[in-house]
Amino acid sequence: MTYRGRFAPSPTGPLHFGSLVSALASWLDARAHRGAWLVRIEDIDGPRTVPGAAEDILTTLERFGLHADEPPVWQSQRMARYQQALEQLQATCLVYPCGCTRKEIADSLLHAHARNTTLAYPGTCRTGLHGKPARAWRLRVPDGDAAVITFDDRWQGPQTQNLAAEVGDFVLRRADDQWAYQLAVVVDDADAGITHIVRGADLMDSTARQIYLQRCLGVATPEYLHVPVVTNEHGEKLSKQNGATALDCDKPLDALGAAALHLGLDLGSEPPATLENFYSAATAAWAKLMKIRAS
Ligand code: GLU
């Protein structure tokens, strides 16, 4: 198998320290495996995309020495592929149109919560639209044992999620006419031949959905590794939304050193003086850490 990894930032603002940690971890894992590292700009969420942010992220990655092995892929240019994937699922009746509004779902979940039952989408439109206009497309998740998805995360260990109980039938095409992240990410990773996904642990909860969707589409499931997320002083995940500042491109070694520390990489007592020294020490330290974690 030829290793192919990727970093998939959403251009909702400049690259910040939290996303640098994911970028670095995915880059190091690819290098430690002598594999390829790709970048995909996840710009399908029109309302959240900030003009110019993607170009800014790509420039910052370059300035930090994180060079991709192939030209970047832009999700906004791949809409036809998402449509094809939806049509493939429509042909096998694995998806259905949903007419529920957010309020209707929230109300029924509140009701379910009061009865102390499931908080997953209740499947209202599984049996038809009940006279409502179609708003979104949902993927039907299996019932019974088949709903339980397990995977072995290379950092976090064995994981289990019951899709029926914890998620419910999930959205692939949103009511606002946007493709859902879950569909785009699975189609893109499969088309790019991604074998290893390394990303932040905030996406752990999406992984079972993505594995199930891979099975529905008949594509391979990659290996997963979710690194600990960076939090702010309130314990919230660092994000562009809660004020994470852009990285200083003039001092890449400072931020890279801090990112390596966050990942628990031991780079020795002398801080590397050049980007080249940093990456060779960090790649060796990553390989060592992975060996320890796997044993
Ligand atoms: N675009 C997502 C983000 O920036 C990452 C998606 C992924 O790595 O699967 O959080």
From TrEMBL:
Q: Which cofactor does it need?
A: Zn(2+)
Q: Which organism is it from?
A: Paraburkholderia translucens
Give the EC number(s) listed in the UniProt record. Answer: 6.1.1.-
* Residues where L-glutamate binds: 6-10, 42, 181, 199
Give yes or no: UniProt keyword Coiled coil. Answer: no
The record's remark on the cofactor is: Binds 1 zinc ion per subunit.
Give the motif span ('HIGH' region): 9-19
One GO term in the molecular function aspect is:
ligase activity
The function of this protein is:
Catalyzes the tRNA-independent activation of glutamate in presence of ATP and the subsequent transfer of glutamate onto a tRNA(Asp). Glutamate is transferred on the 2-amino-5-(4,5-dihydroxy-2-cyclopenten-1-yl) moiety of the queuosine in the wobble position of the QUC anticodon.
Residues annotated for Zn(2+) binding in this entry:
98, 100, 121, 125
Please state which protein family the record places this protein in: Belongs to the class-I aminoacyl-tRNA synthetase family. GluQ subfamily.
Q: Which UniProt keywords apply?
A: Aminoacyl-tRNA synthetase, ATP-binding, Ligase, Metal-binding, Nucleotide-binding, Protein biosynthesis, Zinc
**Protein name (record):** Glutamyl-Q tRNA(Asp) synthetase
* Residues binding ATP: 240
Motif 'KMSKS' region located where? 237-241
**Taxonomic lineage:** Bacteria, Pseudomonadati, Pseudomonadota, Betaproteobacteria, Burkholderiales
**Cross-referenced InterPro entries, in alphabetical order?**
Glu-Q_tRNA(Asp)_Synthase (IPR022380), Glu/Gln-tRNA-synth (IPR000924), Glu/Gln-tRNA-synth_Ib_cat-dom (IPR020058), GluQ/Sye (IPR049940), Rossmann-like_a/b/a_fold (IPR014729)
Q: Which Pfam families match?
A: tRNA-synt_1c (PF00749)
**Taking every annotated instance into account, which residue ranges of this chain make up the domain Glutamyl/glutaminyl-tRNA synthetase class Ib catalytic?**
4-247
